[in-house]
Design brief:
Strand content: 35-45%
Radius of gyration: 17 Å
Oligomer: single chain
Distance between the termini: 34 Å
Mean pLDDT: 94
Helix content: 25-40%
Low-confidence stretches: none
Structural class: alpha+beta
Number of strands: 5
Number of domains: 1
Length: about 120
């Protein structure tokens, strides 16, 4: 599935939110609308935060690698061609609303890294 970056937002916490359009035609004048939002997080930088919770930063970097990608998707299926732009824009607006409230929070990066690390540890236990 081909995707195009349609928005890039610099968040107040220094992270960069990128929004991609991966929509595609599925039948006749009907589309699957796909919005994908991604934030690349530097693991070592995130673990330098005081909110690191006493977890060994070197162990986290060793387990996850230097970067992790947060991704959130929004999808709508069987959308009329005349409505595809409005539907995609609504998905983007909802995501951008979260950007100011959630993604831009000072502790977003470290909390996401720690959650990813804990999930990985649980899967390998």
């Amino acid at each position: 599935m081909e995707e195009t970056c349609v928005h890039t937002v610099e968040l107040k916490n220094g992270l960069k939110l990128e929004i991609f359009d991966a929509s595609r035609k599925i039948a006749g004048d009907r589309y699957q609308i796909v919005m994908s939002a991604r934030i690349e997080v530097d693991v070592a930088e995130a673990m330098a935060s005081p909110a690191g919770g006493g977890v060994d930063p070197e162990a986290v970097v060793a387990a996850l690698g230097p970067k992790v990608i947060f991704e959130q998707k929004g999808e709508r299926n069987f959308i009329d061609e005349k409505e595809k732009e409005a539907v995609f824009n609504a998905l983007c607006d909802a995501c951008l609303d979260n950007a100011g409230k959630y993604f831009a929070h000072d502790d977003f990066a470290v909390k996401y890294v720690l959650r990813t690390y804990r999930v990985l540890k649980t899967q390998h236990s």
